[in-house]
Amino acid sequence: MSSLLARLGSAAAAHPWRVIATWLTLLVLVFAAASAFGGTNHDDYNVPGLPSQQGTNLLSERFPEMSGADARVVVHSDSGPLDPAVLTDLGTRLADVNGVSSVSPPRLSQDSDTAVISLNYRIPVTDFHGSEGVDALDAAVADTQAQGLQVELGGQVPENISTPSGTAEAVGIILALIILVFAFGSVVAAGLPLAVALVGVGIGSGLITIMAGFTSISTIAPTIATMVGIGVGIDYALLLVTRYTEGLRAGMSVRDAVAAANSTAGTSVIFAGTTVLVSLFGLRLSGLPMYASFGYATFAMVGVVMLTSVTLVPALCGLAGTRVLGKRSRARAERRTTSPLTERWAIRVSRRPWLWALTALGVLILLAAPVLGMRTWPQDAGSAPAANTVRQAYDLIDSEFGPGANGPLMVAVDLNKVPAAELPALSRELAAEPGVASVMPVLMNADSTAALISVQPTTGPSDPRSTELLERIRSDAVDGVHVTGLTATFADISARLAERLWLVIAFVVALSVVLLTFVFRAPVVAVKAAVMNLLSVAAAYGVMVMVFQWGWGAQLLGLPHALPVSSWVPILMFTILFGLSMDYEVFLLSRIRERWLDTGDSHRSVVEGLASTGRVITSAAAIMVAVFAGFALDGDVTVKMMGVGLATAVLIDATIVRMVLVPATMYLLGNANWWRPGGRRDAKPGSDATSAGVPLPLRAR
Questions:
Q1: Residues 6+ apart with CB under 8 A from 324
Q2: What is the spatial distance between Cα 340 and Cα 369, in angstroms, rounded to a whole number?
Q3: Distance from CA of residue 144 to its chain's centroid?
Q4: Which secondary structure element, helix H or strand E, spans residue 70, and what is its range?
Q5: Do 206 and 116 belong to one domain?
Q6: Are the C-beta atoms of residues 206 and 31 closer than 8 Å to each other?
Q7: Given this model, what pLDDT does residue 333 score?
């Protein structure tokens, strides 16, 4: 692997314009294909096997006009009761909206200043292209708004639209550029990782758009993929450029330095990137098609970014030559490449490894403790930005009709199994259930084979008492009665994801251990790395519970109140983070192993490895934190939680874990770190002696 990457790097440095032209051409072609064949992102909540899906299937088969998408139009007057004629006229226009199968009579609040008109569509929300569904609603309510009334939109149709603002990406990129300039002291060197990351993210975004034309891609999947793509793209390029500059300072020619960087840091990039890609396969085990789309999108993004790193970075380095060092560095090429501060820190940790290891472990356990009380719920309109129309509609309904009006439970009845004569009794039983605010009149299909009863809880959709009510209704239901609707679906999704989380964790951890064992041929190091990554993830989960569920930082992040952790976050964050953690793990351990093979001194190798990688790991982590923290500004609550969670995890991983726990445990284990079955030690590394961490090879090798 290292020799192949060395030759690839050398060829790219020798013919930089060919490589650059190839990637730019590919970028144009992908964008053209995306424009011609690309699709629209949408959320698909149909999940075979969920209890709510049985009700959905029943309605789709026998009551199609009530099985499609839904929307709510909320009209509010600040000057008194609403004019019935205005509402009648609005209902007539809404009935003419394409795809609408039924429009309910206006439901008035007690003081008649607010009305809710519910719409049912004969088509699923996934059949809308882009914003056409919302555009049609906007056109229908325009005349009502022109009369000075507040009109807000809620329900599946408007809530299924996600428009990235670009603010989060811009903030992350700007902060990353500042950190890169500080790290390299050269604008040229700082620009290289950023340029490579942007090319990779651009191609990856185009591929995601193309995939959306052939399969369902979640509305927030591209944002999550972009967040990860920018972070790993800059990080991978940073590792390569850092190793390249070290080669130049060691007196190598440009092509030799490029080949050396690609054979060492490039190997780390390939294995770190492969770990991310392999980890993403774990999302398939979630059992949710929508969840798998996160994996598809992020897989495409990381895969492209990894390839651009080991090809485009060498080309740009070959083109820039020694200009990446800056004037001061070119004049002092013999400058030391290790970090004196990091070296002193490594020596300090080595003197009292037990104390440092136990202290770090205690901090991680303390941060992780809140995860024991973590509660999850998929995002809904109640957590949307205050200025968003779906949030305005949610708040109006909550204040005028009660919190449960935002998440009714839809009871679908198979009249081939339950006689129609029993429907009144069923309605009375539902109304008498504790936690039920009201039960709407029974709706029946044309041939009287299916019925639908809407049950409004006294509590909001994300309130655990609503889930308890759902479970009680289901436990008392006879055969042929199914509870469905968005609230029931979200409850089922949360339960499914909580159930599958441990399966995903086991899969990702096992594959990561296998990969690390293959890279370093040291099972002890691989298992220890997996345990430490688990501690990092658990600590990040705990911080998310404190910030969002306990509400310690919710308002600072633009949220109105404390709220459960999004159900989409734990598994998604685990699979991404476990792969990302391997970036620093592979890079640090490669250097330590390289020094151990060279000196045979396990303690000295840890000090030298940490000293030589401390600055680049700190810079890479700072970039990751900056990029992910920028996404905490995103209006989508899932993206916001992912940004906070990943930024926290990377910060913990690069400080407490990599700078304290890893060196302390490696000091304690000594040569046992590199034990492997048979007890045979690796030979001195040559050009291909090891999978990672080889010495800087010359182009001639």
A1: 184, 186, 188, 189, 192, 241, 244, 245, 248, 317
A2: 35
A3: 39
A4: strand 70-76
A5: no
A6: yes
A7: 44
Which of 126, 159, 192 is at the close of a domain?
A: 159
On whether the CB atoms of residues 301 and 294 are closer than 8 A, the answer is: no
- Shortest CA distance to 239 belongs to which of 592, 651, 594, 615? 615
Distances (CA, A) of 500 to 50, 225, 549, 567, 649: 13, 22, 22, 12, 22
Which CATH number do you get for residue 152?
A: 3.30.70.100
H or E element, residue 55: helix 51-62
174/298 same-domain check: yes
Structure tokens at 181: 């300039």
Strand partners, 457: 436
Q: List Cα–Cα distances, 610 to 345, 409, 452, 592, 663, in angstroms.
A: 9, 57, 65, 7, 8
Residue 421 CB neighbour total at 10 angstroms: 8
Helices assigned H by DSSP within 433-522: 464-476, 486-520
Residues 411 and 432 in one domain: yes
Q: How many domains does the chain have?
A: 3
State which residues of the chain have pLDDT below 50: 330-337, 683-701
**Does any domain span residue 692?**
no
| Phi, psi values for residue 64, rounded to 5° | -60, -30
Residue 173 covered by a domain:
yes
Shortest CA distance to 612 belongs to which of 345, 352, 350, 353?
345
Question: Which of 476, 491, 506 is the last residue before a domain boundary?
Answer: 491
Domain assignment present for 46: no
Whether residue 44 lies inside any domain: the answer is no
Question: Tokens 């020799």 — which residue?
Answer: 3
Rounded distance, CA 27 to CA 207, Å?
10
Give the integer Cα–Cα distance in Å for 176 and 622: 8
Shared-domain flag, residues 135 and 195: no
Per residue in 184-229, pLDDT (tens digit) is 666 777 778 888 888 988 999 899 889 888 877 877 788 888 888 8
Residue count of the chain: 701
Structural domain containing residue 89: 70-159
